[in-house]
Amino acid sequence: MSIASTVMIPTTNQIGPVNISLATDGIRLPRATSGPVLDLDLMTMAKQLRNEAAWSDGRNSRTLVKHRDFRMVLTVMRAGAHLHRHQARGTVLIQVLSGYIRARVLGEVVETPAGHALSLDPNLEHEIEAADESAVLITIAWRQTFDIVRMEPISASSMPRLASLCSIANHIEAAGQPETDAR
Question: Where are the domains of the chain?
C-alpha cells in the first residue's frame, strides 16, 4: 500500500489533532466508525473516495459512523451516476456537500444543490442522480428496538383495559385543571 499523503486535521475537541492517511492504490485505510467522539473531515474524506479505484465506476461510498440505530455514509458521484431506487427502514437525511443532485421521491423530482438537504420518512422509496459531480452525506436513524420488549397485537380482549387506562388518564388530567366557580 502506498500512502499519497498524511493530512493533519486540527480538532476542537480535547483529543488533539487527527492524522488521516490518503491511499493512492485503492486500498482503504481502516478507521473507527463508532466511539464517544468522532471528528470527521468530510471534504478530505470525499477527496480520498475520489482517489480510490471504485471511483472509476462513477460513484464510491464509505460508512463513516455506524451505531445500532444510526448510520452516516459519505458518497461521491460523477455526473450522471445513480443510487437506484431503494428504501431505508429509518428516517433518511441527504445533505448535498458539493455538486447538485436530483432525488426522485413520491413521483416527483426534487432538485437539490450544494448546501441543501432532504429529509425522508422511513420506508419511502427514493433514488438519486448526480446532475454534477457531487458529494452527499446520507444519514439514517431509526428507533432503537429492545429485545426484551415484546410487542403484542391489540386484541378485542385488551380493549376494555385500554379504555379504562384512557379513562384514568382523563381523570388525572381533569384533576389538574383549576376548578371553576359555577354560580
Answer: 3-141
HSE-CB for 179 with a 13 A CA cutoff: 3
Q: How many CA atoms lie within 13 A of 113 on its CB side?
A: 0
For residue 44, report the phi and psi dihedrals to the nearest 5 degrees: -65, -40
Residue 29: strand, helix, or coil: coil
Q: How do residues 114-129 score in pLDDT, each as one tens digit?
A: 999 999 999 999 999 9
Kindly report whether the global pTM for this prediction surpasses the value 0.70: no
Cα–Cα distance, 112 to 103 (Å, whole number): 7
Q: CB burial class (10 A; 0-12, 13-18, 19+) of residue 41?
A: middle
On the 0-12 / 13-18 / 19+ scale of CB atoms within 10 A, 28 is middle
Name the CATH topology of 3-141.
Jelly Rolls (2.60.120)
